[in-house]
Amino acid sequence: MGAIEQFHTAPGTLDLGWGHPHPDALPLDAWADATADALRRHGASALDYGRAVGPEPLIDWIGGRSDEVFVTAGASHALELIASVFGRGGPALVDTPTYHYALRTLADHGLRLIAAPAHDPAAMLELIRRHRPTLLYLVPTFGNPTGTSLPGPQRIALIEAARRGGVTIVEDDTYRDLSYDGVPAPPSLYSLDASDVVIRISSLAKTVAPGLRLGWITASPDRITALTRRGYVDSGGGVNHTTALAMASFATSGGYSTHLDSLRARYAGQRDALAAALRLHLPTASFDVPEGGWFLWVRLPGADELTKPATAHGVAFLPGDTFFLDRKPDRPIRLSFSRYGPEDLAEAARRLASAHRAMPRGR
Ligand SMILES: Cc1ncc(COP(=O)(O)O)c(C=O)c1O
């Protein structure tokens, strides 16, 4: 077999750097059934070119107004499109720390990036007035890398600041469904927005499978039209027709909701295992336990020097600078608990603690 995956971890290494699903969390059999069901149900139309905005059965399941949805090839593709249609040369504000590949995607469009704090609407408004940005990107719910969510009152204030400053908010809602402990995710910025400043992007990469390359954009009908009336969308007949139909079968059969229940239990357990092992083995680490998502954002004395010894001890993570526009000492590190079960996560914490002990003294 030839190589087909994005990356391979060095043998023997527990790599908490990548936000990838646990292999056992991927619904192999259920997805095979959903694909077969879609092909049976829709016949040749399932393999034909599709509608520009995506197939109705999936859009119906997504809910809300059907003219406010565009099915995309994942959240990354959604952001790429939004930057190309609404970026208009920028600049773009980004609520750092934030998803590092989003920083790259926006920069690919030549947009100058400016760090802006979403939790401080007054500062945000000041930055909007000063820089006249076209876009403001953030992950307000179970964010990457921090796992935290923007509180309700700040959501409303942020939308108001964007409205007053005439900037489009790009709400990356990728982790919404991964809420734990029965605590529901806060309302989306999109659902709170009455003034058409928010475009929301969603993904099935974390809750079903990254390889599907499936997600969607929710926005006002005018914005959806601007995004979809494009040569390449019409030429391709939508962007992911057959996979979208299989997803519709998976969802409407009840398979998705059963799968999501098991994912929530799995990832909450993995989160708790990593948190407990860190408390036990690395008592100088401090972190909040997130109510959703895939990450612990961990403050640790000496973290800046930890990468090399960690590699030598067979464990990896992402340094905090990855998620900012600048470099600064003593930033937290991101540990992803998504990819490994409780025992491996406990072992990863033990290795991290050994690596930390092995660092040069004097810290
Ligand atoms: C915040 C955020 N947005 C988008 C993505 C990528 O989503 P997709 O695979 O649907 O492109 C990720 C994956 O790590 C993410 O963390």
Can you give a write-up of this model?
The protein is of the alpha/beta class. The protein has 2 domains: 14-26 and 256-357, Aspartate Aminotransferase, domain 1 (Alpha-Beta Complex), CATH 3.90.1150; 29-253, Aspartate Aminotransferase, domain 2. The chain contains 13 helices and 12 strands. The chain has helices spanning 28-42, 56-62, 74-86, 100-108, 121-131, 152-165, 189-192, 221-228, 231-236, 241-252, 255-281, 307-312, 342-357, and strands at residues 14-15, 69-72, 92-94, 113-115, 135-138, 168-172, 198-203, 215-218, 295-298, 315-316, 318-319, 333-336. Strands 2-8-7-6-5-3-4 form a 7-stranded mixed β-sheet, sandwiched between helices. The chain has a 3-stranded antiparallel β-sheet with strand order 9-12-11, with no helix packed on it. Helix 7 (189-192) links the parallel strand 6 (168-172) and strand 7. Helix 3 runs parallel beside helix 4 (100-108) and helix 5 runs parallel beside helix 6 (152-165). It binds pyridoxal-5'-phosphate. The site of pyridoxal-5'-phosphate (PLP) has 13 residues, from helix 3.
Which structural traits does this protein have?
363 residues, Aspartate Aminotransferase, domain 2, 2 domains, 12 strands, seven-stranded mixed β-sheet, Aspartate Aminotransferase, domain 1, globular, binds pyridoxal-5'-phosphate, alpha/beta, three-stranded antiparallel β-sheet
